[in-house]
Specification:
The structure is a single chain. By secondary structure, the protein is an alpha/beta fold. Helices cover 51% and strands 13% of the residues. The strands form two sheets. It has an eight-stranded mixed beta sheet, sandwiched between helices. A six-stranded parallel beta sheet has the order 11-10-9-12-13-14, with helices on both faces. Helix 9 links the parallel strand 5 and strand 6. Helix 2 crosses helix 4, helix 8 crosses helix 9 and helix 9 crosses helix 10. It is globular, with a radius of gyration of 27 Å.
Length: 490
């Protein structure tokens, strides 16, 4: 790469690995003669801090601050004390159960009965017994581990752990966000780029502050309506804050990008700005996948309903499971990163309760360039987004275009942007995402008429030629050309 080529500091608040849109934009700029440093966040210790990917230099940041260190210390202390209490409680019950087997067990059991009946005291009073029975304790039934400790100390430790989560969880999230923005702003300004390209609201303040340190055009790439996004506890205060910050940032931004027409209209109307450039999130290239490399659930010829994307609330996954229960010959495959393991567990529990646990599969994500090749082995694409926020209502998910490129008819939510594409090109069926019976009927309407199914497959392949990254990339290239013509270094 030419060291004199324009330098773009691009940033996203995720580990970058599976963010296909961000990687496509970065690759496009590299192919057009730019140097790109893509800043992300390091979410795991074994993740590379820095690496090269198709000419893009990826740098993962580790947010640090005094407040974050303090909060983590407090939460870890409470969690560690509670873990010690649980282990001690488990130890005490195991020793009491084993008291009749040998003299040591009987003596320790009697000591417990005479002394304080706390799990923590049990751990401290009998180190030799705990050491001798370590293997027994580690394989004990969960009821021993989870039994409530009735002592004051035990209750206190348990309460402290619970309170620490309630008290510190939100401040911890805020501390991580602030530490990331501060670290990212400095890291971006330090490389003295010619353009700052910020993906989504949760990074744009870092770009805004970096501009104060090193002057360069700021590009705001808004992937959704962030003030109305899918969050657990939306509040008016949060929306006011997001809109206040966005309004200030947009005054300084040299250009604004978004993902579909409805969101572009909303941002232009809400903030009274020039209409953002629409660069849709569509696939670029697909790498063929050998049958031996296919994930196991894809390898048979049965009816396979495929969901592509993050395993998270609001994506219609409960409805997918309930609809699958109404189609005995179908199996449901959810392929994507797990955002919250507890949520995945709740989905697995729902499937088990409905008696279809053996027909619901969670598959880890494959590399972005292999997604459509793997998806082609499914039968129907799934894009049933729930109407839980305005951002979702106006969304146009990438999974619709990935299904097109895979030649899959799609069953999707009857929302404006989704309906416009699905019905205009006759590539699937839309219905109410909250009605499992309607969803099951829509799936049957697609698959039970072989002639209609095949026609939808052909329509999907034809439409895929219109929704390619090559076309969308030209909009990105034109935007950067306009920055250069306006006299910026880009």
């Amino acid at each position: 790469m030419n060291d004199t080529a324009p330098l773009v500091a691009m940033i996203v608040r995720n580990p970058v690995v599976h963010d296909a849109r961000v990687l496509r934009e970065a690759e496009t700029l590299v192919e057009n003669g730019y140097r790109v440093v893509l800043f992300g966040i390091k979410s795991k210790e074994d993740m590379a801090t820095e690496e090269m990917f198709r000419g893009v230099r990826i740098v993962r940041l580790t947010p640090r601050s005094a407040s974050l260190t303090f909060i983590n210390t407090m939460m870890n202390a409470a969690r560690g004390a509670e873990r010690l209490r649980r282990r001690g409680s488990r130890q005490r019950r195991m020793l009491e159960d084993d008291a009749a087997k040998d003299g040591l067990g009987r003596a320790v059991s009697q000591a417990y009965r005479r002394g304080p009946r706390s799990g923590l005291s049990a751990t401290l009073l009998a180190p030799s017994a705990m050491f001798r029975r370590r293997r027994l304790i580690e394989t004990a039934p969960m009821e021993h581990q989870d039994a409530a400790d009735s002592s004051v100390l035990g209750k206190g430790l348990r309460t402290a752990n619970t309170l620490s989560r309630r008290v510190f969880m939100r401040p911890r999230s805020a501390a991580i966000a602030l530490a990331f923005l501060k670290t990212a702003a400095k890291a971006m300004a330090d490389i003295k780029p010619d353009v700052y390209h910020c993906h989504d609201f949760n990074t744009v303040w870092a770009g805004y502050r970096a501009v104060e340190r090193w002057k360069a055009p700021l590009v705001y790439d808004s992937h959704e309506i962030y003030a109305h996004q899918n969050v657990a506890h939306p509040t008016r205060r949060r929306r006011w804050f997001v809109e206040a910050v966005e309004r200030r940032v947009l005054k300084r931004a040299a250009a604004v990008i978004t993902v579909n027409e409805s969101i572009a209209d909303y941002l232009a109307r809400r903030y009274k700005i020039a209409r953002p450039v629409v660069v849709m999130n569509v696939p670029w290239k697909s790498t063929p996948v050998a049958p031996a490399e296919l994930p196991e659930p894809f390898r048979d010829d049965g009816l396979k309903i495929l969901y592509l994307g993050g395993i998270m609330r609001g994506r219609g996954l409960e409805g997918a499971i309930r609809a699958t229960a109404l189609i005995p010959e179908a199996k449901l495959i959810m392929m994507g990163p797990v955002m919250r393991p507890m949520y995945q567990e709740s989905l697995a529990k729902l499937a088990a309760e409905l008696g279809i646990g053996d027909r619901v599969f969670f598959v880890p994500p494959v590399p972005p360039e292999a997604v459509t090749a793997v998806a082609a082995h499914a039968t129907v694409g799934w894009a049933m987004i729930n109407n839980i926020c305005l951002s979702y209502y106006y969304s146009l998910p990438n999974k619709i275009f990935e299904s097109m490129h895979a030649g899959l008819p799609v069953v999707a939510s009857n929302f404006p942007e989704i309906r416009r594409v699905v019905e205009a090109y006759t590539v699937g069926v839309t219905c109410d995402p909250e009605d499992p019976a309607a969803i099951a009927a829509a799936i049957r309407a697609v698959i039970e008429d072989p002639q209609r199914y095949e026609q939808m497959r052909q329509n999907a392949k034809a439409a895929a030629a219109l929704f390619t990254w090559d076309r969308e990339a030209e909009k990105l290239r034109e935007l950067y050309r306009s920055l250069r013509q306006r006299g910026s270094p880009a």
